[in-house]
Amino acid sequence: MTFGQFLSILAARWRLVLSIVALVVTAAIGVSLALPKQYTATAAIVFDVNPDPVSTVGYGEMVWPAYLATQVEIMQSVRVARRVVEALQMKDDELSRRRWQEATGGQGDFEEWMINVLSRGLVVKLTRESNVVTLSYRAPDPQVAARVSNAFVKAYLDTVVDLKVDPARQYSTFFESRAKELRGQLEQAQAKLSAFQRQKGLIGADERLDTESARLAELSAQVVAMQALSAESGSRQTQALARSAEQLPDVQANPVVASLKADLSRQEVRLQELNARLGDAHPQVMEAKANIAALRGRISAESRQVASGVGVTNTINRQREAEIRAAYEAQRQRVLRMKEQRDEASIYQREVEAAQRALDSVMTRFNQTALESQATRSNASVLTPASTPLLPSSPKIFLNAFIGLFLGTLGAVAIAIVLEMINRRVRNVDDITEALGLPVIGTLPKPDRIGVFGKPSSQPILARRVLGQLPMSRP
After folding, report:
1. Helix/strand number for the chain, H first, E second
2. Which are the contacts of 97, defined by CB distance < 8 A and separation ≥ 6?
3. Does residue 429 sit within a domain?
4. Is residue 123, in this structure, part of any structural domain at all?
């Protein structure tokens, strides 16, 4: 079917099309006028995305849509609807009870029935790309619609606060009991540490340990020094035993021995002079020899005394080394014991610190939950309360009439085409070509309605009528 054929069909059946369209539009308007009027009251709630100053909880960009969707579900929940029923005292409403009796015959729970009725009239919409949620309620009475809508808003805000406060109160009770337990553990740990310090006398243990460690370092230095002295004196004693006394460095460095050797040298020089001048038998020569012998004896005696002093010095050095080493070992044991005591005390101290940290953490959480349990509002606020609507929201007569016009037009056109398909007629040249299967050689112009003698001619009209009634069939 071409567009021209379609237009010719509509032109031929325009009365039917207009009748159907008028009938549908009239029916839509009639039904709209017959339906009871409904009034819609709308309230707006805005959500604050800023962090909570108590719990310091913020909502990220990915979490915020899910949070708003959750709030929409809460607004539509049975818990909020039950609060509305209780707030408006609908249990005592006789009209609502009569409706319940008529609808259910007295079967079931009246409160649950009211909750279902309220939920059917509630519409919650989340505004895209904003923090505003609109809550609408539809009812036959405009004042009832506004009152119920505001009641839903208040019930939602109270429910959100309860959802926030109730867990906070439970956590607050838990953290309070936990804080008492941790406080007892802290007191026990402190008592153990104090008892250990009294038992071991650890008062200012770190300072005392530092002093004892310094003393141990000093004794260690003395031990090293005495070891060097003992090694030196032992070497000198070994040399004294292996060599003659006069060859020892200590003997040669002794001032008395050096003085005696100087006197011996002078006496030997004098003896040589006396021998050369007086002879061996002279009394002076004999006296000089006696003096030399006495000096040598004194030198030998002094050398032996100095050599014996080296051994005594070595013995004294070894004794001092042993004493200092013993003192060093005693000091080292004392420092080790103090370190062990300090390590043991540090274990008790760490227990005290761990208990203190745990108590501080629990007390922080307890204070936070205690503040949250006393909260009276959430991050949701009423942006616009619901007001009494002046005009009904439904039925929408103009919209219904337009829809009836649209649907009636579609239906009328469809009916006209179906009727045309059932009883096909020749409407234009294309129909002749389609029906006969022959090409059209030419067409005559449309004749005038005025005849030759100036009178109306009925022949063209009659021809068109006959043409319109000609069925499409092949010869």
Report:
1. 14, 4
2. 110
3. no
4. no
The answer as to whether 229 is a domain residue is: yes
Beta strands in 413-471 (DSSP E): none
Range of the domain at 335: 206-345
DSSP 154-208: HHHHHHHHHHHHHHHHHHHHHHHHHHHHHHHHHHHHHHHHHHHHHHHT-SSHHHH
- The gap from C-alpha 73 to its chain's centroid, in whole angstroms, comes to 25
Distance (Å, rounded) from C-alpha 435 to C-alpha 473? 6
Is 29:389 a contact under the CB 8 Å cutoff? no
Q: Domain total for the chain?
A: 1
pLDDT in tens, the chain (475 residues): 667 777 777 777 788 888 888 898 888 888 877 777 888 899 999 888 765 555 555 555 545 778 888 888 988 988 898 888 888 888 777 777 888 887 777 787 888 888 888 888 888 988 777 888 999 998 888 888 899 999 999 999 988 888 888 887 888 888 888 888 888 888 888 888 788 777 776 655 455 667 777 887 887 888 788 778 777 666 665 655 545 545 555 555 667 667 767 777 777 777 777 777 777 777 777 777 777 787 777 766 666 666 566 666 767 777 887 888 888 888 888 778 777 777 777 787 888 888 888 889 888 888 887 777 776 677 888 888 988 888 887 777 788 888 888 888 888 888 888 887 787 776 666 766 766 666 767 666 665 544 444 444 444 443 444 444 445 444 3
Rounded to whole angstroms, how far apart are CA atoms 104 and 94?
15
Contacts of residue 178, defined as CB under 8 A and 6 or more positions apart, other chains included, come to 362
Alpha-carbon gap, residue 313 to 304, rounded angstroms: 14
Question: In angstroms, what CA-CA distances link 287 with 274, 296, 300, 309?
Answer: 10, 14, 20, 33
Distance of alpha carbon 251 from alpha carbon 88, whole angstroms: 125
Place of tokens 């067409």: 443
Q: What one-character-per-residue DSSP string does 205-260 give?
A: HHHHHHHHHHHHHHHHHHHHHHHHHHHHHHHHHHHHHHS-GGGSHHHHH-HHHHHH
Place of tokens 């129909």: 431
Residue 275 lies in a domain: yes
